[in-house]
Amino acid sequence: MQGVLSGFAVIAVVIGAGYLIGRRGYLGRQGHEVLTKLAFHVASPALLFTILAEADLSLVFSGRLLVTALSTAAVAGVFVAVGAAHGWGVGRTTIGALCSSYVNSGNLGIPIAVYVLGDASLVAPVLLFQLVGVTPVALTILDLATAGEKQPLGRRLLTPLRNPVALGSLAGVVSASGIGIPGPVMDPLTLIGNMAVPAVLLAFGISLRGSSLPLRGGERGTVLLAVALKSVGQPAVAWVLAVTVFGLRGAQLLDVVVTSALPAAQNIFTYASRYRVGETLAREAILVSTLLSVPVLVVVAALLG
Questions:
Q1: What is the DSSP string of 34-66?
Q2: Rounded distance between C-alpha atoms, residue 279 and residue 34, angstroms
């Protein structure tokens, strides 16, 4: 319980600071956009590189990660199917699918893993899976969806290699495979990467300035679908898969269900802002799923802990 409250308290304070910055106008009218660009083009690639360069890639192939991967695919697939049926568009549907399945495994997942699960490394497989697998695919889709119909085929094929976040992840995986990074290179990258999470949270807080209360606008139905899939659907699917298919019990079962019950990650809003698609959907889904995840995580820990 302490881990849940501690993780949420940190996020709430930084988002609140961002809201005050936006309300006071300290960064001007372009503050949110500048922070978003900083996070997307500079800080996030550096952060992903430093995390993955020192990661144990063998964790990607663990049995528990298969539960996470399958539950992620299941709930994202449901949102994509509904989005296709309603004609929501590729970009908006992609953002909604991320809100339904992409968990906050970093700044919230790590403290919860420490205090609830007792081991910070337990969230590492989820973090690696999202950084190496989900993020490059999602951003490539967003790049292609927002590039226009006249983009040459060769340029489309090279889309993943032009995305700074995907490049940072790819470079980190290559480094983790055996290429040593000297300290004079890693240290400044680590310093730059440390700006990523604060920049994302501050930009999110600034975006709340002047925004209407969630679930009251035209995105209400879409937000409710994303939040239901993220907060209830994903942990439920993970539990069913873990018990019936992989035979997980005890601590391993608690691990996969807790990580699946984490709320939507704040960096989804960065992606939505960067591509100017589904921004309201991302902002409201992140906010509501974060609030709802408190009782969800408490119930999961009580039932399985």
A1: HHHHHIIIIIHHHHHHHHHHTS-GGGGG-HHHH
A2: 16
Among 305, 299, 296, 297, which residue's Cα sits nearest to residue 251? Answer: 305
Give bridge partners of residue 103 from the DSSP assignment.
264
Q: List Cα–Cα distances, 206 to 28, 95, 148, 283, in angstroms.
A: 11, 20, 29, 11
Query: 1.20.1530, 1.10.443, 1.10.3470, 3.40.50: which CATH number matches 2-304?
Result: 1.20.1530
Query: For the segment 187-219, what is each residue's pLDDT rounded down to a tens digit?
Result: 999 999 888 888 888 988 888 887 667 777 778
Q: Are 264 and 226 in contact (CB under 8 A)?
A: yes
CA-only gyration radius of the chain, Å? 19
Would you say 34 and 206 are in contact if contact means Cβ atoms under 8 Å apart? no
Q: Which two tokens stand for residue 48?
A: 């992903």
Residue in this structure with the two tokens 């100017």, named with its chain if needed: 276
Q: Mind listing the pLDDT tens digit for each residue in 80-93?
A: 999 999 999 999 99
Its pTM stands at: 0.77
Q: Are the CB atoms for 247 and 120 separated by under 8 Å?
A: no
Q: Where would I find the beta strands (DSSP E) of the chain?
A: none
* Residue carrying the six token digits 């993970």: 238
- Structure confidence by residue, pLDDT tens digits, 14-52: 889 999 999 988 898 888 889 988 988 898 888 878 887
pLDDT tens-digit readout, 220-276: 899 999 999 999 999 999 999 999 999 998 888 988 999 999 999 888 998 999 899
Residue 256: partners with Cβ closer than 8 Å, 6 or more residues away: 64, 67, 68, 238, 239, 242, 248
